[in-house]
Specification:
The model has no long low-confidence stretch (mean pLDDT 95). The chain has one domain: Electron Transport, Fmn-binding Protein, Chain A (Pnp Oxidase, Chain A, Roll). The chain has a seven-stranded antiparallel sheet with strand order 3-2-6-9-10-5-4, covered by helices on one side. Strands 1-13-14 form a three-stranded antiparallel sheet, with no helix packed on it. A two-stranded antiparallel sheet has the order 7-8. 12% of the residues lie in helices and 35% in strands. Strand 13 and strand 14 form a beta hairpin. By secondary structure, it is mainly beta. The chain is built from four helices and 14 strands. InterPro entries: Flavin_Rdtase-like_dom (IPR002563), Split_barrel_FMN-bd (IPR012349). Pfam families: Flavin_Reduct (PF01613). This is Flavin reductase family protein. GO terms for molecular function: oxidoreductase activity.
Length: 201
């Protein structure tokens, strides 16, 4: 099968996000200018640079009360900071609950029953029990082609690692089982980990 996206795929569901998998999930926490907290998952997410450490996530939909975007991007525009919390398999239920379309100002931490903790380098909450959290300062928000498509780039200014995930000086992902986004409504739990040495090692 071959299709040109602009012409449509002719399938019952769009296969695009099922092709680019698995994807890590950025569970983005923000605080608006009035002190209201927000928490939402985004699966267009990755690390993009080592020094300084930088990440990106993309938001691809909008809310009627947010002027063409969603609460996360709106809050980041206003404050310049955000935190990316890493999602483990054990948190799949509360992560999913935090994706509900709530009105602006409603706190997903409270609605989903997620415990907050304070960040150290930014004025923003983080998920207290997350395996890792990346405190970020905004670098830029890039508007992409298409309605409500925005990519947010941030510099990581603080890193929280849960103590039980550190083994012999390494962050061990098998200690918490990362949750990954697949296509459609599918997710995956990452369990098998192996090493490959590079040819020039």
């Amino acid at each position: 099968m071959f299709y040109i996206p602009a012409d449509g795929h002719g399938l019952p569901h769009n296969p695009f996000n099922a092709i680019v998998t698995p994807r890590p999930i950025a569970w983005v926490s923000t605080r608006d200018g009035t002190g209201q907290d927000n928490l939402a998952p985004y699966s267009f997410f990755n690390a993009v640079a080592y020094v300084p450490p930088q990440i990106m996530f993309a938001s691809t939909s909008e809310k009627p009360d947010r002027d063409g975007t969603k609460d996360s991007v709106g809050n980041i525009r206003d404050t310049g900071v955000f935190c990316v919390n890493i999602v483990e398999y054990a948190m799949r239920g509360v992560m999913n609950a935090s994706s509900a379309a709530l009105a602006r100002g409603e706190d997903e931490f409270f609605v989903a029953g997620v415990e907050k903790a304070a960040c150290a380098t930014i004025d923003c909450p983080r998920v207290a029990e997350a395996p890792a959290s990346l405190e970020c300062r905004l670098i830029q928000i890039l508007q992409l082609p298409g309605k409500a498509n925005f990519t947010v780039f941030g510099e990581v200014t603080g890193v929280h690692l849960r103590d039980d995930c550190l083994v012999d000086g390494r962050f061990d992902v098998t200690r918490y089982t990362p949750l990954a986004r697949m296509g459609y409504r599918d997710y995956a739990a990452i369990g098998a980990v192996f090493e490959l040495a590079r040819p020039d090692d």
